[in-house]
Amino acid sequence: MKSREKNMIQIKADSAHPVPRGGDGAGTSVIGVGRAGVHIIDQLILERCGPRHLVAVDTDEQDIRASVAPHKHLLGRRRLRGLGTGGDAALAADLVRADADELDALCAGVRTAVLVAGLGGGTGTGAAPVLASRLRAAGARVFAVVCMPFEFEGTRVLRAAEGLEVLETACEGVAAMSSGRLLHVPEAREDIRQVFRHANILAARSASALLHLLDASGTAPLSPAELRALLGTARLENTWAAHGSAQGADRMERVAGQITASPYFEDGAVWQHAAAGLLSVVGGSDMPVAETRELAERLRAAFPVDLDIRSSAWVDPRSEGVLSATLILTAADGQPVPAPAKASVLQDEPPAAASTDDLPDAAGEEDSLFPETAAVRHSRKKGPTPQRYFARQEELQLDQKLNRGRFEKTTPTVIDGQDLDVPTFLRHGIKLKV
Amino acid sequence: MMFWKKEPEVIAALEIGTRKIAAAVGELREDGSLAILGVGEAVSAGIRKGEIVDYPQAQQAVRDAILDAEQKTQVEIKEVYLALTGSHLSSRNVLVKTATEEDDALVTLEHVRELNDLAAQTGMPADHEVIHELVQFYYLDNRVKTTEPVGLSSRSLEASYHIVSGLRTRLETQVRCVVELDIEVVAVAMASYAAAQAVLTPDDKKLGSVLIDMGAGVTDYIVYVGGAVIHSGVIGVGGDHLTQDLALGLKLPYLRAEELKIKHGSLRWDPRHQPETITLARDATTEERTVWMESIAAVMQARQLETLELIRADLEANGLWPQLTGRVFLTGGASRVDGLAGMAARLFPIPCMVMNESRFEGDMSHNRRPELSTVLGLLRYAQAVEQTSTRPRGLARFGSSVREFLSSMNLL
């Protein structure tokens, strides 16, 4: 276990001096590939947190037209006539090679890029690795943030796993996030699209955070090699992200609260599998160094285990008066990652309360300066050794064949996370006399 | 065979269903009433969950159904009203507002049109196309409620709409499937909305009723309160799922499972009155088999209960139950399953009935077939359209004028 002193934030604590102003983001880019990628780019623009150079690349003309990205490219205009690849990843890869000249011109001058995509479909899975290779060949550092499909999406999960393998060899590092873990976001129970919206926002924030962490004008920038090592081996789920943003006098406390209340961290299982944390703090020119340090310390204190958290603060002129922070936890290599949602039940006694609303006043707690989720507190009571209290492990069953029978080729009917095309008696575990 | 040239007073409705394609032909009599001339049918192919997955097969089935209808009714079908369904359909309620002229404060047709346009644009996903813009109520100054605001005086005009839309590409596929057969699609209607015209009386609509149309591919539902549609939905689960569940659970070929469902399918099993097992005779593909009635009931009960519970929960989440004082009506082919009425009665907080009889004149041989509710209801919808003067022609049906036209039929 690393000592807390060793984990201290690596910036000089000087509250009298604000954080030096960040760079203009020249040479950095976020490139969205495929439908999910384009939506993530749009989210970056809506959240006003990305670099200026944002590129949307897709084979579907409707998505490209609807996007608000400043730079857009429709792949394979002649071959596909804007109709998409229909899930053909190999075709998407070919199209990038065919459109190489136009794409090179679009990405000229990019030194650090983060590719964002959803894996499991055609364009994102096929085009992203080829595009990453081209960028690297042109001398750029390329990382990727990808959203993985739901566990129940069958062939898409397999395709995503294959795509991830290829993408990992083409990039410096890949942050893979599971969409399934967001299924228990309260809004998602009403509307599955909310899962995608949350996933897009977190992917957008993560992409932006990676660029900030790498930016030399931040307070404690990471080198690409360090980031690569921290991200580790790409797996179906190797990162979890949370974001908080607030303004006003108690903004730092509120940001910390929002991060710890993130749906990714809600079940407490994630902590046990995290190896390191990356914290990107963005604020206006008035942001004191002490504030960023204190935020990192508060977050660290909230964790049930000591994590090595690397943080860097960055000044964005668009964020005057606003403090926003993104925390990315990365998985330990070789550790099994708990399956999303289902693994939320701890093996011991269940958490006392599911949400922060049910918690007693934080002021009454000696060791807690701000509210923490019940699951986290539950884990902390048990002590810091992961082996003693880790969650029930349910790995993604890649080879599990969900029997959709006659509906194999149709769009799944999914309500409340249940695939209704799978017989009800199977899902409910009803035993039949045969 | 000699066909008569289609006369203007003859109308045709088409439903591309998952189990069957039905084309109903009706005659508009001079007194304005509707008489069924006949219904042509063909077994569907290439359709799953209400959506076309194999275009050539589906088109052939549509062609067969139209030919069957033509032969039965001796009418050459040149244009149809088309029922649409599929889990891609979505609906929402919107409230839009405009101001009238300062001077006379008179509400004109222009204001109503302006609201129609506003409503269609509100919260509309980019890849969706409007199917219905159903006006619920208009509100004048001080929230005075009316259903016909034109000619009244008010400084502001507000209107609530129930907007139904669907994925443009899927809608186009269905329409194209018909248009390519040289048959014009006059207008389209959501399947549950069409079925409501066959099943619900004006009183049911006013009291606040729910219609659940349990088809082979999907289950559609629509909720009326105060005579207006206030909620609708589609769940991509239907009778096909029941058959598939039986096939997988009892390890039977799909067609045997379908036969078993139709002959012996039930949601209840009482050992005092029903046999414990059923023996399925040997056929070319399967050996003689014995299946437990208890298992059949368990499989079917789990599925039907889940579907109805989803609908109940949706209506509960939207806070609709307190507004409903009428009944829940169940129709569609999958509503024929034995024991459904009892299950629904235990589940829903208002009285329920399985609607297996509709009230149509003319060829009355179809009145006891709940699976034809949609296509027969669509004829009634077509009747209302034909009796309005602003009927759109040709491609205008998918443009803005059709929205205006459909909403002019408010509170049908």
Structural class based on helices, strands and sheet pairing of chain A: alpha/beta
Spans of chain A of at least 5 consecutive residues whose pLDDT stays below 50 are: 1-24, 341-401
Secondary-structure arrangement, i.e. CATH architecture of the domain at 238-400 in chain A: 2-Layer Sandwich
Q: What letter string, H or E per element, gives the SSE order of chain B? A: EEEEEHEEHEEEHEHHEEEHHEEHEHEEHH
CATH architecture of the domain at 10-87 and 168-199 and 358-407 in chain B, please? 2-Layer Sandwich
On the 0 to 100 scale, the average pLDDT of chain B is 87
Write down the oligomeric state: heterodimer
Spans of at least 5 consecutive residues with low confidence of chain B: 392-412
Helix and strand string of chain A, N-terminal first? EHEHEHHHEHEHEHHHEHHEHEEHHEEH
Provide the β-strand percentage band of chain B: 25-35%
Key phrases:
heterodimer; A: 434 residues; alpha/beta; 60s Ribosomal Protein L30, Chain: A; four-stranded mixed beta sheet; disordered N terminus; B: 412 residues; Nucleotidyltransferase, domain 5; Dna Ligase, domain 1; six-stranded mixed beta sheet; 19 strands; 33% helix; disordered C terminus
Q: Care to describe what's here?
A:
The complex is a heterodimer of chains A (434) and B (412). Chain A is built from 16 helices and twelve strands. Chain A has 434 residues and is of the alpha/beta class. A six-stranded parallel β-sheet of chain A has the order 3-2-1-4-5-6, sandwiched between helices. In chain A, strands 7-10-8-9 form a four-stranded mixed β-sheet, sandwiched between helices. Chain A has a two-stranded antiparallel sheet with strand order 11-12. The termini of chain A are far apart. With 412 residues, chain B is of the alpha/beta class. Among the domains of chain B are: 10-87 and 168-199 and 358-407, 2-Layer Sandwich (Nucleotidyltransferase, domain 5), CATH 3.30.420; 90-165, Dna Ligase, domain 1, CATH 3.30.1490. In chain B, the strands form five sheets. Chain B has a six-stranded mixed β-sheet with strand order 11-6-1-2-3-19, sandwiched between helices. In chain B, strands 14-13-12-17-18 form a five-stranded mixed β-sheet, with helices on both faces. A four-stranded antiparallel β-sheet of chain B has the order 7-10-8-9. The radius of gyration of chain B is 22 Å and the shape is globular. Residues 392-412 of chain B have low confidence and may be disordered. At the A-B interface, helix 16 of A face helix 6 and helix 8 of B.
